[in-house]
Design a protein that fits this description.
Blueprint: E1 2-5, H1 11-19, E2 23-26, H2 33-39, E3 45-48, H3 56-61, E4 67-70, H4 80-85, E5 89-91, H5 98-114, H6 116-124, E6 142-146, H7 150-161, E7 165-169, E8 181-182, H8 186-190, E9 195-198, H9 212-217, E10 222-226, H10 235-244, E11 247-252, E12 276-278, H11 287-307, E13 328-335, H12 340-350, E14 355-363, E15 366-373, H13 379-386, E16 391-398
Keywords: Amino-acid biosynthesis, NAD, Oxidoreductase, Serine biosynthesis
Protein name: D-3-phosphoglycerate dehydrogenase
Function: Catalyzes the reversible oxidation of 3-phospho-D-glycerate to 3-phosphonooxypyruvate, the first step of the phosphorylated L-serine biosynthesis pathway. Also catalyzes the reversible oxidation of 2-hydroxyglutarate to 2-oxoglutarate.
Length: 401
């Protein structure tokens, strides 16, 4: 079993996988489609962050790939449908870096409210400009959260502890934490608050969610943050509103187009505008978060290889399993059509296989049957099951006789 880890994934992932007997190859930067197809020859497990795109073309060129891990919250860099069609399980780290992103957001809100970036620049340039003009406490001010998932809700709690009044809007009905107030529409939220922080996912319909029309809904002299996805904001529209003064400051950590590797050139229409914080997609880039992400996703790889566990998969049926201690375990991904389980059991019965336990779960067009066989399983039975029309992928763990 061999894993390829790209984009400087934390060394904890390598340590955990190697301890499980998996050979690991690491690379620092991202790969484009052609480079990735070439690099995946002989690879079973692929780990990526946000830059590398696992597209349908790559998947169809390397269908033997068994699992992919997004060492991040988002999974929009993976074609999940294509992965599912080829029985490639996908995992992510939905919680590991939420605190890091939230702390960056809190820091940027305070920095923008106090114009600390501009004061810092002036001091480095030798200018002493001691003034309270345009500088405000965040206590008592209103924060609007667009998206109230893992990050938005945690930011809600911390902001409230600073004395901010929190409002949120989410397309999904979410439970308000603390004293946060739910708004019925995005327009209601934007017209109510003084600071807006965006925490939505990468689905296509969120493209340019913030545009000239949306920014016009915001209160004059508001602050704006986007630490979610780069394509969510029309940067030209944001620039116009910053230059006009309608928006008093902005903090961005993500961009529609980002450099592949550290040290590459970055350009943006927002560069050089006062009270604008630009950071290089480091919301989750703390030592603590990256170590935890490395441990979490690599742990999912290990569990899948050892036991067939797909718990917390984002694209295949979920089964939580422990490693087998005797006999064999069959991991059977198949088309979700009637009669498959009966056919599999008939084949096993004809070959004298004693079924010790069995689980079946489905997700959309896929079914996942996990069968523990106390007395092992003959190769002839595996060959017969693999030949079934409904078969997507069959893996046998343990005793094959």
């Amino acid at each position: 079993m061999k894993a390829l880890l790209l984009e400087n994934i934390h060394a904890e992932a390598t340590r955990l996988l190697e301890a499980a007997g998996i050979e690991v190859e690491t690379r620092k930067g991202a790969l484009d489609e052609n480079e990735l197809i070439e690099a995946l020859e002989g690879i079973d497990l692929l780990g990526i962050r946000s830059k590398t795109q696992l597209t349908r073309r790559v998947i169809e060129a390397r269908p033997e790939l068994k699992a992919v891990g997004a060492f991040s919250i988002g999974t929009n860099q993976i074609d999940l449908d294509a992965a599912a069609e080829h029985s490639i399980v996908a995992f992510n780290a939905p919680y590991s870096n939420t605190r890091s992103v939230v702390e960056l957001a809190i820091g940027e809100i305070i920095n923008l409210a106090r114009h600390l970036g501009d004061h810092n620049k002036n001091m480095h340039n030798g200018l002493w400009d001691k003034t309270a003009k345009g500088s405000h406490e965040v206590r008592g001010r209103t924060l609007g959260l667009v998206g109230y998932g893992n990050i938005g809700s945690q930011l809600s709690v911390l902001a409230e502890s600073l004395g901010m009044r929190v409002y949120f809007y989410d397309a999904v009905d979410r439970l308000a934490l603390g004293n946060a107030v739910r708004c019925d529409s995005l327009e209601e939220l934007l017209s109510t608050v003084e600071t807006v922080s965006v925490h939505v996912d990468g689905r296509p319909e969120n493209t340019n969610l913030f545009n000239a029309e949306t920014f016009a809904m915001m209160r004059p002299r508001s602050l704006f943050l986007n630490l979610s996805r780069g394509h969510v904001v029309d940067l030209e529209a944001l620039r116009d509103n910053l230059v006009s003064g309608h928006i008093a400051g902005a903090g961005l950590d993500v961009y529609p187009v980002e450099p592949k590797s550290a040290g590459d050139t970055f350009e943006s229409v927002l560069q050089g505008i006062p009270n604008v914080i630009l950071t290089p997609h480091i919301g989750g880039s703390t030592a603590e978060a990256q170590e935890d992400i490395g441990r979490f996703v690599a742990g999912k790889f290990r569990d899948y290889v050892r036991s067939g566990s797909t718990y917390m998969s984002v694209n295949l049926p979920e089964v939580q399993l422990s490693p087998i201690d005797h006999g064999a375990r069959l991991l059977y991904l198949h088309e979700n059509i009637p009669g498959v389980l009966a056919t599999v059991n008939s084949v096993l019965g004809e070959h004298g296989v004693n079924i010790d336990g069995q689980q079946l779960t489905t997700r959309g067009s896929l079914g996942y049957v996990v069968t523990d066989c106390a007395n092992g399983v003959p190769q002839a039975a595996l060959d017969e099951i693999r030949a079934l029309k409904a078969t997507r992928r069959l893996t046998a763990l343990g005793q094959v006789r």
